[in-house]
Design brief:
This protein has helices at 6-13, 17-25, 46-58, 63-75, 80-121, 124-128, 137-148; strands at residues 3-4, 33-34, 40-43. It is mostly helical. α1 (6-13) crosses α2 and α5 packs across α7 (137-148). The longest helix has 42 residues, at 80-121. It has 2 domains: 3-75, Multidrug-efflux Transporter Regulator, Chain: A, Domain 2, CATH 1.10.1660; 97-148.
């Protein structure tokens, strides 16, 4: 079985060593072995959990909930239902975040079109004067949403 130092594992995962130290400090790495001197010893089998932890964190799950998930994993099969609930809730959170990001992207795409049009014509008034039927439907929808609040 191959083992890795914290630096080697961080490199293998494409994260900073400080990230792994932070995870450890927060109690997210109870499965990681240590040398008698206290140095962390990672192995290939740690990769999946480390990647799941990174995914949960990137998806906005609070550290306390990630710790709860890790602890439940350590308790075995009797906690499958609780883990399933946590993952379902996190998935729904990510789906909602994606929807919000799509809305933001739509507004940015509209403003990009608007300023490119204004830049080409030399006037924001020219971009404002473009008829709705000349806009692609998604941009038209955004224009109407933005004007609704004006």
């Amino acid at each position: 079985m191959a083992t890795y130092t914290i630096g080697q594992m961080a490199e293998k995962m494409g994260v900073a060593t400080s990230t792994l130290r932070y995870y450890d400090k927060e109690g997210l790495l109870p499965f990681v072995e240590r040398t008698p001197g206290g140095a962390r010893i990672f192995c290939d089998s740690d990769m999946e959990m480390l990647n799941v932890i990174g995914c949960l964190k990137a998806g906005g799950m609070p550290i306390k909930d990630i710790k709860k998930y890790v602890d439940l994993c350590g308790e075995g099969d009797s906690t499958i239902g609780a883990r399933l609930d946590l993952i379902r809730k996190q998935r729904e959170h990510v789906v909602e975040e994606i929807a919000e990001l799509r809305k933001s992207l739509d507004v940015l795409d509209y403003k990009l079109w608007f300023y490119e049009t204004a830049d080409a014509s030399g006037s924001c008034d020219m971009a404002k004067a473009v008829p709705d039927d000349q806009l692609e439907p998604r941009l038209r929808m955004v224009r109407h949403e933005l004007q609704r609040f004006a």
